[in-house]
Amino acid sequence: MIADGVEDEEKWLAAGIAGLQQNAxxxxxxxxxxxxxxxxxxxxxxLSELRTSRLSPHKYYELYMRAFDELRKLEMFFKEExxxxxxVVDLYELVQHAGNILPRLYLLCTVGSVYxxxxxxxxxxxxxxxxxxxxxxxxxxxxxxxxxxxAQVSRDKLPDIGSEYEGDAExxxxxxxxxxxxxxxxxxxxxxxxxQGPAREKEKREKERSExxxxxxxNLHVLSQIEGIDLDMYKDSVLPRVLEQVVNxxxxxxxxYLMDCIIQVFPDEYHLQTLDVLLGAFPQxxxxxxxxxxxxRLMERLSNYAASGADVLPEFLQVEAFxxxxxxxxxxxxxxxDMPILGVITLYSSLLTFTLHVxxxxxxxxxxxxxxxxxxxSGKGKLEENKATKQIVxxxxxxxxxxxxxxxxxxxSNYPRVLEYLDTETNKVMSTVIIQSIMKNKTCISTxxxxxxxxxxxxxxxxxxxGAVLDEVDEDDFKEEQNSVARLIQLLHxxxxxxxxxxxxxxxxxxxxxxxxxLPFTVPPLVFSSLKLVRQLQGQEENPFGxxxxxxxxxxxxxxxxxxxxxxxxxxxxxxxxxxLQCAEAANxxxxxxxxxxxxxxxxxxxxxxxxxxxxxxxxxxLIIGTLQRMHVFGVENRDTLTHKATxxxxxxxxxxxxxxxxxxxxxxxxxxxxxxxxxxxxxxLCLKRALRIANAAQQMSNAARGSTGSVTLFVEILNKYLYxxxxxxxxxxxxxxxxxxxxxxxxxxxDSSTPDPAADAFFASTLRYIEFQKQKGGALGEKYEPIKV
Length: 790
What we know:
790 residues; 38 helices
């Protein structure tokens, strides 16, 4: 059926074009022979093709444009006729003898254009006559195109100020009157289209009307170009008349389009000075009109106008723009009780953007907007609609974008209240936006109260909100979110130790409720922030004033012990052990032996009870040895206890090569360069000999299991340890011990049962070259190396 209708329409259009072209041909022939009567006859017949009712607006437009082109040629002929002495008044009357009204009016408008140009009659009189005459066509499509033609031919002939057709001083009023009258009639015709035809074709009619809307809107554009319209005339006459027509037409499509046209075509300054009148029309529009979009565009234009220069801002204050817009939005929402929540949020989002541009210093205005939004959201529960939640994110992002400072946003009491209406996922998105704003602007959050407020805002990232299922979260997204929280914790700072300690306590309170998946991300930055504060307080024993409430390293270490303990409970023993060792090192620098000992104790307990994976054990024991070697705070007894533990665990590792490496690493625990009381040569030698025995046992096991002794790498590594302590002046490490070890390695490498290992060969060769180099270098060290034969 539809296909048949389209084909029929194409046929009718083709027939119309053919008829038009045929008559146009005869009209041209008459024009060429200066035969006025035949020219009028054929032009009228040509224009009769526009009387059709069978074409859709789109197809009718094609036909109209062909007729329009022919009429321009006819107009030029009429001009030539008047130059040759033909009276334009006679011509104006002659065309009115055309048989049909539609061709007659097209010809009348064409001659009318020449009549105005001839200046034989005032432009206002001719235009008034034409606009009145056009009422003879009441068919919507034919009438719209006729009046569009009238607007087109008269556009450059309006009696405007500065125009050659100006006439007396009141002429601008006449120009306005003509355009307004034409606009009013065109709008009536346009609206009438909606009510013609069966109800089932409503969508088709709306589509057709949408195609024709620019014909009506052009009138408003022409109106905006009239020089004679000053602010007073616009305020007293033009805007009220246009709005009256918009409101009275009671048509959803027309009201939406025309309100948008008004906002787009007239100057921003005029909108600002007539806000009362303009905003007063919005609540009177049909309930189905998309007011939110039109009002949002108005506020966007005013925002841009405010941003254009500081000199315009006093105008906004003078007319109390914020109060008027806020009041208007309230009335619109009341007038449209069925307005979806998206519309409400969009309106308040636009108002907030406007407020931030025009009144950046008035935080109370911004908070007022957010408060109004909260009131409208109350009772709605969490928002599920995707577009609505996105709009709330835009609403909440506006203050961050404007102020580039979360601290300012934190002063808005209603800011967190709006955030509560977001679903879990969008809450996380908003939290991420807040953190990114802080990072981008390097915002310093320097008080515990602000940190408390901030962490309340971003709680969607810090803990599971009601109904959230953590297992459903993408692993990579989760890591990215938690890493952003970790970076945020590192940014919190205050030079005052008391306030910084309060900040740390506040952060700790929030993150400890984050659950086992989050703690490994959020506890380490908190620990390092605390250690930074410890370094700041380093050397401070007690508060000089004796205040119990003051922040001391001991107090921080107590908090750290409890904080790291949460990691061992989740469990994340490897991370907890590393943090315990970091804390022990900080306690060492503060000369707090009992505290450092306690942290080491906790690390050893974790190693014993929680770390069972062999690779994790290797890493952990080397960390323990490395940290213990740097400690200077321990007395002999405590150091011996911890050293004994470390060497004991080293010898109990699963694989012999790992045992060997850990045991020879322990030799450094008995010889520390910058500590004279930790230089026990005998125990160093014992460690190295024990490492040799383990390396030897590893070779034997390899021989028994694989039929080859394996690599000599361990022996070369132990040789290098011997050389290290030999250089440091350990009396127990002598030339004989080194010489015998070199010979042992050489023998093993030449053995038939050893496995070829190019890396071990290169390592040994490099070690021998080092010995030779020291000999050649001379000096005290060279003399020590001289007896060694390689």
